[in-house]
TrEMBL record:
Keywords attached to this entry: DNA damage, DNA repair
Organism: Streptomyces desertarenae
PANTHER family from the UniProt entry: DNA GLYCOSYLASE, DNA-3-METHYLADENINE GLYCOSYLASE
Region annotation Disordered: where it falls in the sequence: 1-23
Domain of life, per lineage: Bacteria
The protein, known as: DNA-3-methyladenine glycosylase family protein
Skewed-composition ranges (Polar residues): 1-14
InterPro entries: Alkylbase_DNA_Glycosylase/TA (IPR051912), DNA_glycosylase (IPR011257)
Length: 321
């Protein structure tokens, strides 16, 4: 995008929407529910500032910046948006905040889960409707530490994304919208290397962006069909598909298997046992069939986790090789 286009996007007019959720919704609920979209504390596409959540996103209509603040006294959420995709982002506000999610179908089967369900009545599963923006960072997180993945996401967005639209005097510093598919496809191999992304992950991302339209269609599919669509791309397995569809589709049953930490957390929280694996986790979550992801979100909200161990995958900075 040219400098002139950047300037025009920055100065784009503001659009506003106020929405009254049909359930109590406060600032803590807003931050807790949307936090799953943040890729590290310095994510260029996500910030918390001035009592609001700021989100830079690439919609089908173009880039947009969304500022969302909850006002529990008024029973409303107020969203402001800038950029070519502003109206699209505002139209999707209720879904983003969990309006399509129905926790009434959830039946706790363990005391700890029941207590978490009671303590977090505002917990909702978000639905962005945007696949690539969750798929690409999930691929970056494959088989590396979160710090390495966050560093790669941050570097690639700052170098190849575009400044988020919005007023310079209000927009948190350094916010960027992720690159469009064609830009991802044109990133040279040495830049992936400098970002610490190995050939396997970069190749997976390139295959995904080459089929961007097909990938985005998964946001409108049921869980099984969406998983099939995503995993048809070599390099995208069940872990990556689940991590993506939890965010894009609000998939209540998209339980993450193959994760380094989640099985141990679930097993420890429900039984006190250490060293749990996927099979044991799925056995314990079986009573929550159809709602297994929600069950894990509630368990994570309790903070009941086993003592941390050293990462299984040693940190290797391939940019220095």
């Amino acid at each position: 995008m040219s400098t002139t286009a950047h300037s025009a996007a920055r100065q784009s007019p503001r659009s506003v929407r106020r929405w009254a959720p049909p359930w109590p919704y406060g600032p803590d609920d807003l931050r807790r529910n949307l936090r799953v979209l943040q890729r590290g504390p310095h994510d260029p596409a996500y910030r918390v500032a001035g009592g609001a959540v700021w989100r830079a996103t690439r919609t089908p209509c173009g880039p947009a910046t969304l500022r969302i603040a909850a006002d529990p006294a008024a029973g409303e959420v107020t969203a402001e948006a800038w950029g070519p995709g502003a109206q699209w982002a505002l139209d999707g506000l209720p879904a983003l905040l969990g309006d399509g999610d129905d926790p009434s179908e959830f039946v706790p089967r363990h005391r700890l889960v029941a207590e978490a369900h009671r303590r977090h009545p505002g917990l909702r599963l978000v639905r962005t409707g945007l696949v690539l923006e969750s798929l690409i960072p999930s691929v970056l997180e494959q088989k590396v530490t979160t710090d390495e993945a966050y560093r790669a996401w941050r570097r690639l967005l700052r170098r190849y994304g575009e400044p988020a639209p919005g007023p310079a005097d209000r927009l948190p510093e350094g916010m960027h919208v992720m690159p469009e598919p064609r830009t991802w496809a044109l990133i040279p191999s040495w830049e992936w290397h400098r970002a610490g992304v190995d050939n396997k992950r970069s190749s997976t991302i390139l295959r995904a962006v080459a089929r961007a339209r097909r990938m985005e269609e998964a946001a409108g599919m049921d869980l099984a069909a969406a998983v099939t669509r995503l995993t048809a791309i070599p390099g995208i397995g069940p872990w990556t598909a689940a991590e993506t569809l939890q965010r894009t589709n609000g998939a209540a049953d998209a339980v993450t298997v193959g994760d380094l930490h989640l099985p141990g957390i679930v097993v420890y929280a429900l039984t006190g046992e250490r060293g749990g694996d996927d099979a044991r986790m799925l056995e314990l979550l079986a009573p929550y069939a159809g709602q297994r992801h929600r069950a894990t979100r509630l368990l994570l909200a309790t903070g009941r986790t086993p003592p941390r161990r050293a990462p299984r995958f040693p940190r290797v900075d391939i940019a220095r090789l």
